[in-house]
User: Fold this.
Amino acid sequence: MVAILLLALFWWALTNVFGVPEYIFPSLSSVAAALWEALLSGRLLDDTRISIIRLLLGAVVGIVSGIALGFLVGLSRTARIAVEPLINAFSGIAGIAWIPLALAWFGTGLAMSTFVIWNGMFFVVFANTILGVSRVPPTYAQAIFTLGGDRREVLRSVILPGALPDILTGVRVGLAFAWRSLIAAELMGSPMGLGQWVNEAATYQRTDRILAGCLTIAVLGVLLEALMVSWIARRTVVRWGTVAVAEERKAR
Amino acid sequence: MIQLNERKPILQAINLRHEYEARGQKIVALQDVNLTINAGDFVTVVGPSGCGKSTLAKIFAGLGTPTSGEALYAGKPIKGASSERGMVFQELAVLPWRTVVGNIGHGLEIAGMPKAEREQRVAELVRLIGLEGFEKKYPSELSGGMRQRVAVARTWATRPPVILMDEPFAAVDAITRLTLQEELIRLARTTKQTVVFITHSVEEAVFLGDYIVAMSSRPGRVLEIVPVPDMGINRTWEQMIRDPRIEAIVSRVFELVRGRAVAPSTERQHA
Ligand SMILES: Nc1ncnc2c1ncn2[C@@H]1O[C@H](COP(=O)(O)OP(=O)(O)OP(=O)(O)O)[C@@H](O)[C@H]1O
Ligand SMILES: [Mg+2]
Assistant:
């Protein structure tokens, strides 16, 4: 909270005290005006809605496939030997580099953005899931076996909750990648969406609109992270005490 | 006293040997271990740190396969873990994401016991280990000793015929430990379960056991099996420490595990 206020103050000082011209760095008030105008015209809402749909679709595919494959590879030595080198090779070139190819393969529709977001997100979710699975103490699983549990029970009640802290970290980082991939995809050719909004503003050299778009993206990113990660974390890993929370550490 | 017809072997180790391979080095954890434990026995295993007590318990639990030799349960080779042989682990193994009652009732849940019955059984156990008021707490909100009591209750809940306990009271304070030990004896005697209790406290081994398996330091071997006179279900520490026979057994076991005993058998002394 304090950080946000400081940032706003710095911004205000930049344009009002140091006199940085509007066309280089627009003032807080003109960005607010641009936001308001876009909100009234309905353009911003339309673009936001489209971006969110694209992001959610790509993110769900990225998260589900990352966790599923992460479990498979984390639990089976054979699967690891088979897939890991391939995935390592591909993760190096993941992300924005694929956009031109994706455009050629899928055109500019939902399939393209989904692929690009999946590509930006999958590897970090996947790698963190493997890490999480490998960090579950083996005695937890052994204890469940001596209670009569089978492999499915161990997976459900030991591995999944045990790997959750790392999975959530993967999703958190992955969501940031997903946003970047989406905006890049929209900048490079998707019709509509927040990236396209920024792109159009750039063509008309409307720096106030560019910043308004960036601000919207930032706020959406924070909201989505809060909904998809922090909300879940508070009800699970934080409550269980399997991750240390900064606030709690301060209190001690 | 345990009735004669019940005294049939339930756990057996035959020429057991276990080796660990760590970074190219071979460590012999167990060697020539022969042991027969009868149904209903309360056995304590005592030996210096690193002598292979946990290794032996894990083999009996079915969590490890011996390098050579055989481990039998009810006359059949042990293959994999089963709910018939519960185990309390030396490392804390209660699940951090389950509450006290969630952990204690886990085995019953797996066994498919109806909810109402399960809750009743769990409540009984919570009372027994003195954790009333902590039912809905997560392990991270408990002390180390409380967590270990939850682990004991979790294993006890399903009433497995055999319970392997690997230093379960190591993290419990001395006063609570006394109560838990007395409680454990009473419980084991009334339910006639077989208990293999591992400890490195000689006094604890003598207090709890029908007989004591004294092990040598690495490679772990069974030095001697020391019987303890029957002190009855309601034995107390006060009663035990005043008994000269007990005193003699304690010093005998101490000599054994410290490697200073004059070997009564053909066992070779290991320096
Ligand atoms: N997973 C493992 N890998 C390699 N060596 C091991 C492993 N587990 C145990 N050992 C070795 O085997 C020996 C016996 O270990 P074990 O845990 O059975 O001893 P312990 O009698 O239970 O000791 P403590 O009283 O300290 O718990 C030790 O010397 C240890 O170094
Ligand atoms: Mg041990």
